[in-house]
Amino acid sequence: MKIEEHISLKPLTTFGIGGKARYFSRAGSVAELEEAVVFAKKEKVPIFILGGGSNVLISDEGFAGLVIKMDILGIEFVPKKSGVVEVVAGAGEEWDYLVGLAVEKGLHGIENLSHIPGSVGAAPVQNIGAYGVEVKGTISFVEVFDIESGETRVLKNKGCQFSYRDSIFKGEKGKQLIVTKVGFELKSNGKVNISYRDLEAYFSKKKVDAPTLAEVRQAVVEIRCAKLPDWRVIGTAGSFFKNPIVTKRSFVALRKLYPELLSYPWSKGAVKLSLAWILDNVCNAKGFHVGKATVYKNQALVLVNEGGASAEEVKELASKLQALVKEKTGIMIEPEVQWVE
Ligand SMILES: Cc1cc2nc3c(=O)[nH]c(=O)nc-3n(C[C@H](O)[C@H](O)[C@H](O)COP(=O)(O)OP(=O)(O)OC[C@H]3O[C@@H](n4cnc5c(N)ncnc54)[C@H](O)[C@@H]3O)c2cc1C
């Protein structure tokens, strides 16, 4: 295991923003991860785990501890009971590569999560979701390395405490847990889920009633490409904020003010609002900017780095949007992107 010093984090994030890591190391195995953790403990510096860098905003000053880049690889397909295959993937594998492989093998469950950037290890942390599916629905287990005890253990799905863009790994109890491996239960005899508005519209326009798994993946990729910036070309971390979840009563009150308000069914008594719709139609936010940090022209929930934006500029733009949404709707919106300093 090699420890490097003063490594720029900017190129390791999709935002293309951020200062340097005081120490930097790549962990290609649990043994290397353990060595890196021992080093950080000896130096008494904090640890930050970096996957694909697609959900972080790193401060302009960088990180004054050890950044460990998760590079643990490996994908296995383990047949279980009839019609179910457990797919076990190293935390450093690229998420969309895994989705592509699963679809190629005819395995259902994660195809709606196609084209989300980032690593397998970050998927349970954020409980990634898109097009009516959350990854928590397929995760069978998460293997973790515990920074405090120095031991590796396994959490079953329930133990991960998944909720909307949240899990145990983001809270106080799970912050010392580093994801090393994830197991997914996928179905060879499953059904595609195209109930989400955009997917339904896509297939009804094409007059396809029963799309295949590969067609659903293709549809998701096409819809996303039309809406979201290509993170390899334009700096971004995707949706900067979470969609607000409000009580039915608040929803009814807001609908009186904004009759067209776009929403999605959530749970009994709660409704998920489209923040993109609010930012676009209520706040007129498309094109707002602070320096080189801008609200993306095709999707108001997405903030982009137009070239040379600083983390401070993005933070200021985000605060302005938060204040505007609060003023117009009374809702305090929460960032989805992780702030690292
Ligand atoms: C264009 C674009 C579109 C996006 N669309 C979506 C979408 O539709 N749905 C969605 O949910 N997200 C979306 N995202 C956000 C992002 O892709 C996901 O959150 C992704 O899972 C982040 O993975 P990452 O490896 O890049 O994580 P990073 O950005 O590297 O890290 C994110 C957080 O996870 C922690 N972490 C990373 N790996 C580990 C690990 N192995 N163990 C413990 N903690 C870890 C980090 O410490 C950090 O706190 C999008 C982002 C972009 C840029």
From TrEMBL:
GO cellular component annotations of the record: cytosol
Residues at the catalytic site: R165, S239 (proton donor), E336
Keyword Cell wall biogenesis/degradation: yes
Record localization: Cytoplasm
Cofactor section: FAD
GO biological process terms on file: cell division; cell wall organization; peptidoglycan biosynthetic process; regulation of cell shape
InterPro entries: FAD-bd_PCMH, FAD-bd_PCMH-like_sf, FAD-bd_PCMH_sub1, FAD-bd_PCMH_sub2, MurB, MurB_C, MurB_C_sf, Oxid_FAD_bind_N
Keywords (A to Z) from UniProt: Cell cycle, Cell division, Cell shape, Cell wall biogenesis/degradation, Cytoplasm, FAD, Flavoprotein, NADP, Oxidoreductase, Peptidoglycan synthesis
Pathway note: Cell wall biogenesis; peptidoglycan biosynthesis
Pfam families for the chain: FAD_binding_4 (PF01565), MurB_C (PF02873)
Keyword Zinc included in the entry's annotation: no
Enzyme Commission numbers on file: 1.3.1.98
Catalyzed reactions per annotation: UDP-N-acetyl-alpha-D-muramate + NADP(+) = UDP-N-acetyl-3-O-(1-carboxyvinyl)-alpha-D-glucosamine + NADPH + H(+)
Ranges of residues in domain FAD-binding PCMH-type: 16-189
Functional note: Cell wall formation.
Entry similarity comment: Belongs to the MurB family.
Name of the protein in its database record: UDP-N-acetylenolpyruvoylglucosamine reductase
Species name: Candidatus Taylorbacteria bacterium RIFCSPHIGHO2_02_FULL_45_35
